[in-house]
Design a protein that fits this description.
There is one protein chain. With 340 residues, the chain is α/β, with parallel strands linked by helices. It has one domain: Alpha-Beta Barrel (TIM Barrel), CATH 3.20.20. The chain is built from 15 helices and ten strands. The strands form two sheets. An eight-stranded parallel beta sheet has the order 9-7-5-4-3-2-1-10. The chain has a two-stranded parallel sheet with strand order 6-8. β2, α5 and β3 form a beta-alpha-beta unit. α4 runs parallel beside α5 and α6 packs parallel to α8. It is globular. The structure holds S-adenosylmethionine and iron/sulfur cluster.
Length: 340
Amino acid sequence: MNNFEKILNKGLETHILSDEEIICLLAEQDMQKVQKLFDTANLIKLKNIGNKVSLRGLIEIGNVCRKNCYYCGIRRENHKTERFELSQNEILADAELAWKFKYGSIVLQGGEIQTEKHIAFIEDTVKKIKFLSRNELGITLSLGEQSLDTYKRWFAAGAHRYLLRIETSNPEIYSLLHPADHLFSERLQALYDLREAGFQLGSGIMFGFDGQSYSDMARDLLFLKKLDVDMVGMGPYSVHKDTPMGKKHSVQNDSEMLILGCKMIAVLRIIMPDINIASTTVLQALAPDGREKGLLAGANVIMPNVSEVRFRKAYQLYDNKPGTDENAVATRSALEQSLL
Ligand code: SAM
Ligand code: SF4
């Protein structure tokens, strides 16, 4: 048995891997071995969660944001982006559609806004979604960093899960991805606050950008394990040309990025056998069947977009984001076809 297989067997039995062992799995280029990594992760998923794919309807509620993350297409200083905010009725209509589609839960995602008006708006909207779906729809929020008090209000209103990526567990890399006033320590504190407020904690990372090593990625995966998150949404960095990072970044090879994305999912599944791992839209941007490949590498959640089509183009986090021209019904039938 070669070293790669020994590591996979250890992962299968113990779900514990060291930095070095994870680096070895991530750095492997022999596709036969890489396929074994994916198969091992998929086996662990089947044993621990079964074959079911959980669907969470994604509603992009607005692209107004107070932050200026260097990688993101809807950052405050990208003046080429047309800004939108959904009305409450529009959000409720999207939520109702997700409920009718029998998606178990929805994700309300958008820019970071900390005004009292916005906080109260989300609080009220969450309550109304619970009411219209007869308490059946689970609600995940992904609305950036907020105060502990805000998290408590949104939790009390009926949201039960929150997705806030740490983006990178390395404070030095964090400071390269963000302006100086976006503090790593505040990001970390927000994750602790979310748990204190009662939320099931979702987090994640971005990877595959210039200057990051396999060792950094291994530490990020071990960070998520240590944080004991309930859900992970992570994916490769993808260029948006009108951002500071996109202007400097070297050209990406889509198929290499897709394989890296699947390797990251697979290793995470090995070390966190029973959590929810999303196969994110960015994988679909790299290849039409990218999200399905993520599922076969150990992911178990897909977040089909249920946002109204007229706003999808304005929520352009990176260039060539897929699905911006199709409506929710088309998104659902494309998904059904691909999952059959
Ligand atoms: N504003 C909230 C936040 O930052 O948590 C939620 C929305 S934000 C657009 C959701 C995620 O998009 C971020 O956590 C980030 O990892 C990801 N993202 C933004 N720009 C990206 C890019 N160019 N490539 C890949 N992921 C990106
Ligand atoms: Fe705003 Fe989130 Fe984009 Fe950062 S990643 S600019 S917080 S929307």
